[in-house]
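Hey L., structure's done. Input below.
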Amino acid sequence: MSGPSLRLSGVEVRLGRSVILSGLDLTVAPGQLTVVVGPNGAGKTTLLRTLAGLVAPSRGAATLEARPIAALARAERARIIAYLPQGGTVAWPIPVQSVVALGRLPHGERPDALTPAGWEAVTAALAAVGMEAFAARDATSLSGGERARVLLARALATEARVLLADEPVAALDPRWQLLALERLGARAHAGASVVVVMHDLSLAARFADVVVLLDRGRVVAQGPPRETLDAARLAEVFGIEARVAERDGLVTIEPVRAIAAPP
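Output:
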């Protein structure tokens, strides 16, 4: 699998009278796990929705291999881009396996009529999130964390070359936070273009190949964690004092205290 490159060039996004993204430039390359971090209201979700083609820029361009993302036909876009929104829910009392099989709809497969390739994708996705034993369970009977894993599995089952996930591990326990990010990293390193929005700076530093630091609708920094998540930037953007260290090639971040809020 080889994912396409995504690019935002001079993007401005307005929601009503508010400018959410302004003059934003960003390139997402396949083969790397890209993690977007930033304070509340920085525009992270809007950035992800713009990459998904769900929000059209009022200025600038959002492209996938030089094609405007918002101009792609819905069916084609759904095959190429899997989007996992923040706080997704399961509204119907259907089996977990059927929820995951909904990820095959962009390929013209119904949950009750999967192709062999579809069954393989659904089975692999359930295994990736450790929900094989829950396949026959009513999805509405699951805990919040279990539902989050099922929805991640649905996105994985699409086998899209672009995977965009908004806070996919926020509801998970520590073990599954680590395992889910390992799965997302593996998907990226297999050649997909994977972008994840996160609030947890420690996990972002641990798993990201590329960190995009967003503040007030603009990219403040983009690059490896050791270059983007330094103590000075964390103080400036998040208003925190933090201890930042590197050991065995891994960046660790320990928030110490809140300081004066950024202007």
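The chain has one domain: 6-258. The CA atoms of residues 95 and 136 lie 5 Å apart.

-- N.
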